[in-house]
Structures
1.
Amino acid sequence: MKKIFATIVLALAAVVFVGCQSQSQQSTTTSGSDSEKAINVITSTDVYSDIVSEITQGTSANVTPIISGSSADPHHFEPTANDAKKITNADLIVENGLGYDSWFEKLVKSTDTKAQKISIATDIGQLKDGDNEHIWYDVSLMKKFVETTTQKLIEIDSANQATYEKNAQAYLKKFDTLTAKIDDVKSHLSDANKKVNVSEPVADYLLQQIGFEINNKHFEQAIAEETDPSAQDIAQMQKDFESKTVSFFCLQYPKSQPIS
């Protein structure tokens, strides 16, 4: 079961971060015509710039994340005047929402940008304050994000409609492959192996879509709120492992800590 789950997580990473190896802090597609007016897309983090870049490849669109790489924590990021300038000149802006990148919303309001905006959690996911902010692990929501972004790009840059649609369809097929893997794992789960413990609620959307049940919600909530879990919660988790109540433990490594 652990091996299968690892395969699912890696597959999702391959879909969501497929463009990250070749993307710099400013991701620019340069295959379009020199006479073509380049549109500017600004995203709060490179998770979403990588996805958008998959749709815009072959055009002159500039896709730029404000936060690139793992050096900055989106929860505590402080944007600069240069970041505000990027927002002002944007044609499309994309944020996660739910407080994950609250600074982005404040940054947008500080400018006179005329850009179209996508707040993925609320505009597409219809989520509300208090819901899990780690929405990039929600496969179905990311598919909807690709579809919504494609339509927004076409509204802004109709001359490249065929390219956007072709790229989006190719990218969505990768999600279909991932969904098939998820369904396969889900079909092999039984009530005896559905429960899992997690270090924090990062991959909960994915785990639940596979069919797993989060067993230690009180513990993960404490971590998410940056408070110490109770001794009772810790003791219960130890009992879970000793009695093999849970199938595995999903650990989120800190961004600054390499996996060795």
2.
Amino acid sequence: MLLFLPDGEIDGRVSDLKETYSSACQVCGARRRREVDAGYAEGHHLKPLGRPHHGPDVEGNVLVLCPNHHADFDYGLIAIDPDSHLVSHAYDSTVDGRTLHVRDEHEVDPECLAYHNREIADF
């Protein structure tokens, strides 16, 4: 069972990350808009918050994604190599084999990536 929770806007962690990436998806680079001059992206917890996963609500456990790739992560259709950040996608050859875009100031936790790959990814 997957658990969908708000993306952390309350404490600003996800908002800060969205700003870091200018609301561009770390997988495909797409930047959606919610207004003419405002981007839209979603924060995804690699190790989900709450039961049964009990993931941490920290920047290292969050990726900034477009709505399509957020859904693909939720449904286990994307895995990211914790060491190389190589993207594996179950069906989308346009992103399969790409490298996840990670800015220097955003340290993605390799343990959270490994957890996602082991417990959520399913292909």
